[in-house]
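User: Could you go from structure to sequence for me? I need the amino acid at each position, not a summary. Structure tokens:
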């Protein structure tokens, strides 16, 4: 385990190797639901002009984004830009890395374009690396079926290219959630490095995830939390934390690299300006370059230049969240599990709806923040969750979130003719094709794709008609499907599709 050296009297002559120092920032703002959605009897209304306005509190989201922009994003960006410009010609240029959620970049465009412009200006210096993550800062990597995870990463890749013209090579999953399976997925997508929490090994070295070509970078959580959580604590033995003191701690830390990775909102929002956090940020680069053994690097440079110490196997999920450093901050109680499962089960109906707006709403309801607010444990972690939550109690958060999911479920059911259970295509007993329809709309889509042998197999057995009767509750459709029992080949496909399309029209 990493231990900080308290002695700040460092002899530079004792430092034989340079330590690469990366400063990484996660930048994310959630979209909050209307807190009184259930209590104002909004659920299951028939006439809703705008579902976004129905579910989400746009005025509150705008207010908070503009407040954090003024308190954090704009002033912190100005300080970092000046440090980059002032040190650009030195032998130790200042470098940082950012991981933006897609939903954050959307809010920049909607609420405060100047914030996005200021980040673009930083990136244009050439001393800023951008990292990849899931577009919706979601828990999609925890789903049994991983397609949504891949789709959100692809969406994030596209918005980063559209906003900055860059292709990230370093991946940071939501809140550093990580295990071997996630590493293999990220490796298969072509990334060069992945971040996680530094509880699995000494964080000041580079590792190799088992069975991949990735560089595994670990966050030094003790040094990070000195800034993120302890900076303004007058009960902390090291208070006040000054830039020169912190730089000495960094210089006395053994290892090949040090990765400081925190929420960007630490600067000005979580730690207010009157704590001295901006002065700390302003002076820190200059104090660091005074130490001969320290230099700035981006995560991509560390992954490229430092050879892995060894291979690491991590089977359980780890993250940077709370004291447990696992997934319990989102899935630590029955309420969270129920909401997580419910939201996850609406994936197929949302995608089969063919409604891009409904799909985007479903994905926005997958923001990890919604589950974070339902955390019920007490103590220090409970205080942190309460600080971020717009609700008075986690139970209020669960009522609101579950009610919105129920309402979306109701609308998806009407839109798609959602079945009670899915229809799984096969060509024989236990010979499944992998095609699954969760609704009549989904069945229509798959009838065009599924091999004719599978359609003939189910038609002869009367499987699709039985599904229509027992899972859709549509006897009329079932009878029409049964009338095609003698059909074969492409003629069968055409008849099935016509019958399903007629049923969909009838349901509107």
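Assistant: Here is the amino acid at each position, in order:
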């Amino acid at each position: 385990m990493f231990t900080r050296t308290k002695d700040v009297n460092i002899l530079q002559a004792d430092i034989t190797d340079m330590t690469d120092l990366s400063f990484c920032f996660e930048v994310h703002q959630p979209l909050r639901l209307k807190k009184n959605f259930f209590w104002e009897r909004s659920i299951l209304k028939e006439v809703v002009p705008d579902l976004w306005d129905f579910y989400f509190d746009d005025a509150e989201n705008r207010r908070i984004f503009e407040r954090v922009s003024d308190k954090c994003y704009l002033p912190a960006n100005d300080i970092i830009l000046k440090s980059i410009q002032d040190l650009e010609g030195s032998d130790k240029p200042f470098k940082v890395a950012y991981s933006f959620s897609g939903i954050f970049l959307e809010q920049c465009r909607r609420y405060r374009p100047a914030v996005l412009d200021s980040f673009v200006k930083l990136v244009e210096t050439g001393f800023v690396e951008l990292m990849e993550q899931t577009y919706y800062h979601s828990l999609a990597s925890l789903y049994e079926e991983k397609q949504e995870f891949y789709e959100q990463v692809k969406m994030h890749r596209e918005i980063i290219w559209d906003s900055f013209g860059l292709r990230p090579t370093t991946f940071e999953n939501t809140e550093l959630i990580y295990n071997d399976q996630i590493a293999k997925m990220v490796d298969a997508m072509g990334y060069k490095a992945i971040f996680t929490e530094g509880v699995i090994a000494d964080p000041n070295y580079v590792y190799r995830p088992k069975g991949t070509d990735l560089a595994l970078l670990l966050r030094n959580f003790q040094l990070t939390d000195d800034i993120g959580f302890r900076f303004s604590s007058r009960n902390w033995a090291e208070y006040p934390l000054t830039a020169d003191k912190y730089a000495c701690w960094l210089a006395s830390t053994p290892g090949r690299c040090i990765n400081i990775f925190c929420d960007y909102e630490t600067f000005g929002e979580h730690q207010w300006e009157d704590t001295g956090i901006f002065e700390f940020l302003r002076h820190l680069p200059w104090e660091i370059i005074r130490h001969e053994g320290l230099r700035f690097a981006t995560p991509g440079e560390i992954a490229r230049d430092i050879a892995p110490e060894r291979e690491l196997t991590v089977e359980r999920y780890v993250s940077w969240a709370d004291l447990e450093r696992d997934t319990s901050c989102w899935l630590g109680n029955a309420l969270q599990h129920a909401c997580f499962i419910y939201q996850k089960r609406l994936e197929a109906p949302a995608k089969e709806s063919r409604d891009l707006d409904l799909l985007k709403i479903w994905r926005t309801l997958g923001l990890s923040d919604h589950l974070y607010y339902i955390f019920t444990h007490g103590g220090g972690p409970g205080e942190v969750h309460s600080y971020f939550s717009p609700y008075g109690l986690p139970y209020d958060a669960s009522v609101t979130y579950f009610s919105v999911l129920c309402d979306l479920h109701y609308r998806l059911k009407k839109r798609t003719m959602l079945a009670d259970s899915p229809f799984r295509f096969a060509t024989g007993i236990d010979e499944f094709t992998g095609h699954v329809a969760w609704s009549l709309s989904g069945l229509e889509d798959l009838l065009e794709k599924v091999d004719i042998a599978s359609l003939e197999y189910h038609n002869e057995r009367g499987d699709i008609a039985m599904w229509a009767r027992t899972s859709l509750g549509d006897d009329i459709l079932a009878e029409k499907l049964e009338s095609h029992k003698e059909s074969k080949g492409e003629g069968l496909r055409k008849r099935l599709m016509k019958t399903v399309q007629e049923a969909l029209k009838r349901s509107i």
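One structural detail worth keeping in mind: Residues 51 and 91 are 54 Å apart (CA to CA).
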